[in-house]
Amino acid sequence: MKRLTQHILNILFPGRNVARSHINALQNHPSPALSHASTSNSAYTYPSHTYAGFKPYPVKNPRIRSVQANQVNEPPQQPQVIRCAAIVVDFDGSLVDTLEHKAACCGQACEEIVKWKAERVAKLYHLYSGKPRRARFNDISYEIIDRPMSERSYYRINERYSQLILDGLDETHVFDGVPELFKTLREKGFRLGVSTSTPPDDIKRALELTKLDTLFDETLGSTDEFSKGPHHIQHFAKLWNLQPSQIAMIGDDVTDVKLAQKAGAQSIWRVGTPDPELLRALGPTLVVDPITKLVDMVELEESAS
User: pLDDT tens across 20-39, in order?
Assistant: First the structure.
């Protein structure tokens, strides 16, 4: 009788310290009087330490809560078509597939000159992509040696890095359909520009190597004082006599969407980031995948000029 009482207490109060031998005994000889009939409620789940078919207390199913929360917090739908007078596009990741190439070149340059492990540098390059080059290299340096990169090291690494990039860059890096897309957009009357964190001289040469240089009206690279985002958008707006809201900025990364929003431009996210849910949460004006679909998702808004 004492053991039966112990079994019942163990079932009614699962937190009690009951000997495993008692639990095994109950599993091997379950009492019909202790069976539990209410097991059909699909909105509940039960702890894994239940036994003998008995489910002592219900716990709300976290999966169901998660589904309900997702239904409530679903981000607003983006429009299928937007109106703009100009389209400005990032270079890396939007026009060309060069992120891995550039990360490898950065790793090789750092390993050759300051003896940092190329693999680690390449991973950090991904982490800080989208920033102007000097800022990105400083962030990588902080991660490795806890201080900014010295001017001497930066000069030597930057020179080698640029050389490695341009030596390995050609039109095979261009995403399929990109030349045809921007030729069509030009024919429709859109102003076209490139805005990138790549230095001005390097982006000019990169566009030549990839045979994209004739497609755009204006190309802007970045320096410490004049970088992608509000600086570039203000320049394009003044050049073309537009409001920032009449310009759509295409990018594939979190930084691109944030910079477009900060500048007051419309943001177009070209799907391709490693963290798509984060980007969707930022609420870009338009989502395009692949980029070639953009031709049917933009309408020309006449400029004042």
Answer: 444 444 444 444 443 433 33
For 291, other C-beta atoms within 10 Å of its C-beta total: 22
Same domain, 295 and 186: yes
- Is the residue at 305 inside a domain? no
Cis? peptide before 30, omega within 30° of 0: no
What pLDDT does 224 receive?
79
If one counts the domains in the chain, the total is: 3
Task: Give the containing element (helix H, strand E) for 142.
Answer: helix 133-145
Q: If pLDDT is split at 50, 70 and 90, which confidence band does 80 have? A: confident
* Strand residues in 23-127 grouped as ranges (E): 44-45, 59-60, 82-84, 86-89
Would you say residue 42 has pLDDT above 90? Answer: no
Per the prediction, the chain carries an average pLDDT of 79
Dihedral (CA of 76, 77, 81, 86) sign: positive
Shared domain for 134 and 187, answered yes or no, is no
| 119 contacts: CB under 8 Å, gap ≥ 6 | 107
Domain extent at residue 63: 2-72
In this structure, what CATH number is given to the domain that contains residue 282?
A: 3.40.50.1000
Question: 262 and 196, same structural domain?
Answer: yes
* Last residue in a domain, options 167, 193, 219: 167
Lowest mean pLDDT among 8-17, 59-68, 89-98, 142-151: 59-68
* Dihedral (CA of 215, 216, 217, 220) sign: negative
